Amino acid sequence: MGIVQGVVEWLPVSSEGVIFLVIKNFFDAEAGMGAIIHRALFLHLGTFLAALVYFRKDVASLFKALFNYKSSDLETKKIFNFLLTATLISGFLGFVLVKAFIVLEEQLVLSAQAVTAAVGLLLLITGWLQIKTKKDGVKKVKELSGRDGILLGLVQGFAALPGLSRSGLTVSVLLLRKFSGASALKLSFLMSLPIVLVGNLVLNFNDFAFSKEAAVGLFFAFLFGILTIDLLLKAAKKFEFGWFVLGFGILVVLSAMV
C-alpha cells in the first residue's frame, strides 16, 4: 500500500480512491470506509515527507514567514495567506464530509460493490473536469487572491471523498482561474502539506497504534514518493490524464456490477 501511495499521489487520480479499491479487492474486503480513510491518510504522511523534501525551498520560505511575515516578499505572503485560508476551510469541510460518509455507510450497511460504484462515479467526475479544463492560463503565484484561497479550500475539502482526486481537482480549478500549469501544480502540492498534517492530527492521533506494518507502509510511501515525484509531476504537465481517469472510473463502475 505504501508503494501504491508513493506512485499515484503525484498523478491527477485519486490516490485515496485507488488505495480503497486495492484494499477492498486484494487485502480486506470487509474493511469499512472509516478504517480505509484512516489508513490512506496515514500513508499520505510518507508522501508528505517526500513533498517536503522536494519543495524544501518553498517550505523554508513559508516557515520563515511564520515568524517574520512583514519582511517576507510579496509572493511568499500571497502563498502563506492562500494556504492558511485553504487549509482552514478544507480541514473543516473535509472532516464533516468524512464523518458524514462513514455514518451513511454504517446506516445503510452499504456493500463493497455499492461503495466501489460510488468511488467509480466520483472518478468519472474527476476525469470529466480535467478534460474540460483549458491549460492556457498565464497568472502567476503572486496574483493569488483571497477568493482563490476560499474556492480552493472548498474544492480540497470535497476531495476528502475517495474517488475525487485532490490534485486533479485543485489543479483543474486553478487552471480555470487562469493560473499557468506550472503555478497550478506547485500550489496544488503545497496545499497538500498542511492538510495532510492537520488531517492526521485530527483523525488519526487518538487511534494511532505504531506497528511494524505501519512503519513499513510509511517508509515505502516515502521511498517511492521520492523516487517518482519529479518524473510523474513532469508527466502530469505533458499528458492528458483526464481520459485515463475517465476510463478508470468506467472500469471501476463496471467491476462493481460483476
Question: How would you describe this protein?
Answer:
The chain has 258 residues and is mainly alpha-helical. The protein has one domain. 78% of the residues lie in helices and 0% in strands. It has eleven helices and no strands. The longest helix has 35 residues, at 74-108. It is globular, with a radius of gyration of 18 Å. The two termini are 24 Å apart. The relative contact order is 0.21. The mean pLDDT is 80.
Summarize the structure.
78% of the residues lie in helices and 0% in strands.
The amount of beta strand, in percent, is under 5%
Q: Please tell me the total number of domains.
A: 1
Query: Count the helices. How many?
Result: 11
Query: How much is the radius of gyration in Å?
Result: 18 Å
Distance between the termini: 24 Å
Question: What's the helix and strand layout?
Answer:
Blueprint: H1 2-8, H2 15-27, H3 33-54, H4 56-67, H5 74-108, H6 112-132, H7 146-158, H8 166-176, H9 181-204, H10 212-238, H11 241-256
Helix pairs in contact: 1-10, 2-3, 2-6, 3-9, 3-10, 4-5, 5-7, 5-9, 6-11, 7-8, 8-9
Overview features:
78% helix; 11 helices; mainly alpha; 258 residues
